[in-house]
Write a structure and sequence with these properties.
single chain, 371 residues, mainly alpha, 14 helices, 1% strand
């Protein structure tokens, strides 16, 4: 009679089961984080937009806002009274939509700039887009230009922003190549020159123009109208649609210029294309909303800390995050000290500056210094 053999599948370890260390808790998959973050950002943005559209001197419950939107889309819902409809669709919704477009443009532009420069502390203002647009707007106000009516300041800011980027790029180009360091240093010089021009225009302006210049430079969405939304919409949509296809090349560029060239990336052409996209996004945003800082710097960096450096998520995620930050900041700006309104650029700088300082300290501590 054969004796059945006993097969041991596990080798006993030293100590009893109670003495073994507990198994580590499985960490969430890195691949799921971008998907979950995208869902969270989209849901938070939708909620913030509805709350912002209903909050103000004339309060409209969120349920009524949803009902009015559904009614306009012929999906049911109910129409508000005459005053409510006018406040919602002529004042609040244009402001919320403009905030979405401006925030998405600044966030996406920041992600592209950080990818192009290979530096998580870069932002669109590094190459002079914001200061150039400010020169155009301040010059139009100080010189009393009105050749395009109410659109004069906006058009001058947009044109000056694009012209400044072109100037920075041409000045930094040498021998058919553009080095990142040269581009940054040229941007610093052009920013300083733009600051001097703004000071000169302020010196020439009268008291009423100085007030208008100051208000514009502080950044605000209070002048939001449907025509302004339609003015920035083509530039924002074109820039937001053009950016994602460059995600893979930006990932390769993150390995360094030489490895990227070996992998088939035309670095110079990539840099030209992305600088133009950034200029389009930023100049359009600054032209209609004034100078709003730190959105393009902080949002991409926060998302990179949460989900890693991959640009397939970082570019659209930064657009969503920038839109969310600006809608929430605008809601805070017009309700924190009601009936007065805080300048939006001041509010983003108040919260962004301490965070940027913390970011510098954190980066320096992890790298052991900058040298």
């Amino acid at each position: 009679m054969a004796v059945p053999s006993v097969t041991t599948t596990e080798t006993p370890t030293v100590g009893s089961a109670n003495e073994r260390e507990p198994a580590p808790t499985p960490r969430p998959s890195r691949r799921r984080t971008p998907f979950l973050l995208t869902l969270g950002l989209a849901a938070a943005l939708l909620l913030a937009a509805l709350v912002s559209a209903g909050t103000g001197a004339y309060d409209i419950p969120v349920g009524d806002v949803v009902g009015s939107v559904l009614h306009r889309l012929h999906l049911g819902g109910a129409e508000l009274d005459r005053v409510g409809e006018s406040v919602l669709w002529n004042v609040r919704v244009p402001r919320v939509v403009l905030g979405l477009l401006v925030g998405a443009s600044l966030g996406c532009a920041g992600a592209l700039m950080q990818g192009v420069f290979g530096n998580p502390l870069a932002e669109p203002g590094v190459i002079g887009i914001s200061s150039g647009a400010a020169v155009g707007a301040v010059g139009a106000i100080a010189l009393g230009l009105t050749f395009l009516g109410n659109w004069t300041v906006t058009v001058c800011a947009f044109a000056a922003g694009l012209l400044t980027v072109t100037l920075v790029y041409l000045l930094s180009r040498s021998g058919g190549r553009t080095e990142v360091v040269t581009l940054i240093l040229t941007g610093i010089a052009v920013n300083a020159f733009a600051g001097a021009l703004i000071g000169l225009f302020v010196f020439l302006a009268d008291n009423a123009q100085i007030s208008q210049i100051t208000f514009w430079q502080l950044g605000s969405l209070s002048q939001a109208t449907w025509p302004k939304v339609l003015a920035v919409l083509p530039c924002a949509l074109a820039g937001l649609a053009a950016a994602p296809p460059y995600a893979r090349k930006l990932d390769l560029l993150a390995l360094g210029e030489r490895p990227a060239r070996h992998l088939g990336v035309d670095v110079e052409r990539l840099r030209i294309a992305l600088v133009l996209v950034v200029a389009l996004l930023t100049a359009a945003a600054v032209a209609v909303a004034g100078i709003i800082t730190f959105v393009g710097l902080l949002v991409p960096h926060l998302l990179r800390m949460a989900a890693g450096p991959g640009h397939r998520f970082l570019i659209p995620g930064s657009a969503l995050g920038g839109a969310l930050v600006l809608v929430v900041a605008d809601l805070a700006a017009r309700t924190a000290v009601a009936p007065a309104e805080l300048p939006l650029g001041v509010l983003t700088a108040l919260f962004g500056s301490p965070f940027f300082f913390w970011l510098l300290r954190r980066t320096r501590r992890r790298q052991g210094g900058w040298a």
